[in-house]
């Protein structure tokens, strides 16, 4: 586990040192500190496969991630933040929440957000690839800004899981499959609380169709015609509901298959690359390998090796 602190930086240079850490471990953003002359913050960082665990404390600060930051460096990651002390105000997806001690916040690194910490705070965070969230729930584009209140038992469980993983990382490497129970719990907690992942109206139809496609993911020959017939919707209408999300039915299915394959390999749920590919509807292993590498920057075997 790596430990970094502003304590040994010269006064006036401390905040710049800290902001470089934020941009490396979290996202590209603007940062504003009320007092830049003396700024104290520290962080413990542990890698966990393609994910990262962090425990940080910081003086008051404000962060703004804007569209220009996303254009410069997109972040296909989600953050799960368990506030331990202090708190702040967070805004994303037209949703404003108060992230106080005991609450758990989920936010999306690929979208703009505003984060304001008016006083000193301490938080434990888990950064995970977007695909590991997409493999567990629908409508993740609406997930950012979801808050699990402190009184909910799931919030306490998630908070304890993340802090226990951090404690473990102080002693030894943490395999990425250890994150699976935490992510499963988050998925279940979001589903049982405010259903932010499935918005009423048009998305009712879209989510029903997506659930069907996920259930039949292993069928390599699943086609637009098959989906349309099974869901009693015309091919044209099927295309329209996916176009509203900026994609097509088959592009979404391919991405979902890849996300599930990545999750199976990174979490140790597949004994081999071939098993993961077949379970997700890929029979052409060469195509699977190319598509996987393009999506995640690593081959399926590299991800599987990291897990083991």
TrEMBL record:
One Pfam family linked to the record: AraC_binding_2
Gene3D superfamilies from the UniProt entry: Homeodomain-like
SMART domains for the chain: HTH_ARAC (SM00342)
Domain HTH araC/xylS-type: 207-306
Membrane-spanning ranges: none
Matching SUPFAM superfamilies: Homeodomain-like
Superkingdom in the source lineage: Bacteria
Keywords for the protein's UniProt record, in alphabetical order: DNA-binding, Transcription, Transcription regulation
Keyword Transcription regulation: yes
PROSITE patterns reported for this sequence: HTH_ARAC_FAMILY_1, HTH_ARAC_FAMILY_2
Official protein name in the record: AraC family transcriptional regulator
